[in-house]
Specification:
Blueprint (H helix, E strand, L loop, with lengths): L1 H5 L2 H19 L4 H13 L20
Helix pairs in contact: 2-3
């Protein structure tokens, strides 16, 4: 069913991953839009792979 909605299995998998991350943000009282914006900005400036775990919603700390 989800593959039909996404029109492809890979699309359905991608959507499931994104939806899971956004819901995880909500569970950890992190704003999904702010988190997504910050994480994408950090990835663009080549965030170190060795610190990728710091970008996960459960470890995310919003900088004031």
């Amino acid at each position: 069913m989800s593959a039909w909605f996404a029109r492809h299995d890979k699309g359905a998998e991608g959507w499931a991953m994104i939806a899971s991350l956004l819901e995880t943000c909500k569970l950890h009282a992190v704003g999904p839009l702010a988190w997504t914006t910050d994480v994408l900005a950090k990835l663009v400036i080549r965030w170190p792979v060795s610190r990728i775990d710091k970008l996960m919603p459960w470890a995310y700390v919003k900088h004031a």
